[in-house]
Amino acid sequence: MRINIKENISLKPYNSFGIDVKAGRFVSIKSIDDLKEIISDEKDFFLIGGGSNMLLLNDIDRIVIHINTKGKKIIKQDENHVWVQVAAGENWHEFVLWCLENDFGGVENLALIPGNVGTAPIQNIGAYGVEVKDVIVEVYTIEIATRKETIFSNSECKFGYRDSIFKNLQKGKYIITGVSFKLTTNNHTIHDNYGAIQSKLTDRHIDVPCIANVADAVISIRTEKLPDPKEIGNSGSFFKNPIVSEKHFNKLIQEYLNIPNYPVPNDTYSKKLAAGWLIDQCGFKGKRYGDAGVHKNQALVLVNYGNATGREILNLAYKIQNKVQERFGVALEMEVNIIS
Ligand code: EPU
Questions:
Q1: CA 76 → CA 121, 146, 161, 185, distances in Å?
Q2: Largest CB tally within 10 Å, which of 119, 125, 228, 274?
Q3: Which of 121, 140, 170, 166 is nearest to 73 (CA)?
Q4: Does the annotation mark 237 as catalytic?
Q5: Which listed residue (131, 180, 237, 312) is catalytic?
Q6: Topology of domain 72-184, per CATH?
């Protein structure tokens, strides 16, 4: 076979947690044809994209396929919009910067989210009032069983909060090879309702923000609050923000008057809580256990200070889950995929 398979490769540079496990065999794929070829030869494989939403516990026996396809192209345009098709292996933030250079609006609130374009739909990445589902038109995939190219429309992806069909019903059945987005070319919709964005814009005396101003605000908030995976290994939010019943919430707010809470769309009987706040209240913020720790500015983010193992990070996550359950009666669900 002409595809270059490497042996005994450390996956440390390929996962944003910086966990040093090994792949017995590793291949970086640059074209969809090569991808089809490799999955027809290899029946059992492990896919890695941006590696930004996984915690690796052990060396990987299966061949590791790194999706490294590149390319962005404009496929359609009208007076106010542009449709852009992007290869799965493109880095998400570089794509956001490219959109800003071209004055394409829609993804500016999602600046600096780690990971790749192809993995963004899986967990429906979101930040500061925008989710990627708001701009996705279609998701291009290969069905693993048949190696057939299959396109999912936005509604077929069944997007939800940090959720999509690729995370549940169709988990492990498709490989995402590209995503198309519908972006604005003028009359941009500005999403600046989020408190932190508003205060940044006010500090900068910006009354009528453009998309670049919003992106700059997001970049500056994220840089202040969230660790850069290139410096300190992390996977962004480790847990999802939990949803509790109204009854449970009414009990909690009697004791914790300032508990941050948000409405749940289409569900008036539940409330969403801030996992970061719950963890912070339990005293974990800034705590360090060996090389595993809880970030000092955002308790929702677990970090690897250098040589933590996946197991050490996971043990810390369990410790946090137990404490939050004990104190608030709330079960925290992990957002990061645990790979054993
Ligand atoms: N809070 C604390 N202590 C903390 C962290 C948060 O008290 O250590 C409080 C904050 O003061 C605030 C509330 O908790 O009242 C919510 O915090 P924040 O605004 O930072 O947002 P979040 O709910 O913790 C979510 C996303 C982030 C996203 C931000 C901004 C999830 C799981 N996380 O965090 O996403 O950047 O909103 O939109 O939904 C990611 O998914 O990797 C990620 C970083």
A1: 21, 29, 29, 12
A2: 119
A3: 140
A4: yes
A5: 237
A6: 3.30.465
pLDDT at 338: 97
Sign of CA dihedral 191, 133, 313, 300: positive
CATH 3.30.465.10 boundaries in the chain: 72-184
- Other residues' Cβ atoms within 10 Å of the Cβ of residue 340: 9
CATH of 6-67, one of 3.30.43.10, 1.10.1740.10, 1.20.120.1460, 3.10.105.10: 3.30.43.10
Q: Residue with the nearest Cα to atom 27 of ligand 1?
A: 127
Predicted TM-score of the model (pTM): 0.95
Closest C-alpha to ligand 1, atom 24: 276
Average pLDDT for 195-214: 96
pLDDT value of position 186? 94
Can you name the CATH fold of 233-339?
Answer: 3.90.78
User: Does 153 qualify as catalytic in the annotation?
Assistant: no
Please list the residue range(s) of the chain that carry CATH number 3.90.78.10.
233-339
Ligand 1 neighbours by CB, cut-off 6 Å: 127-128, 226, 236-237, 240-241, 260, 274, 276-277, 280, 285, 298-300, 335
- 3-state secondary structure at position 114: coil
Quote the strand ranges of the chain, DSSP E: 6-10, 22-29, 45-48, 54-56, 63-67, 72-77, 81-87, 126-127, 130-131, 136-143, 148-153, 174-184, 233-237, 243-245, 261-264, 267-273, 288-289, 292-294, 301-304, 337-339
pLDDT class of 2 with cuts at 50, 70, 90: confident
Assess whether 199 carries a catalytic annotation. no
If you average pLDDT over residues 105-134, what whole number do you get? Answer: 97
- Nearest-atom number in ligand 1 for the CA of 194 is 38
CB 279 within 8 A of CB 294: yes
Q: What is the pLDDT of residue 285?
A: 98
**pLDDT recorded at residue 204:** 96
Domain with CATH 3.30.43.10 in the chain: 6-67
Confidence of residue 1 (pLDDT cuts 50, 70, 90): low
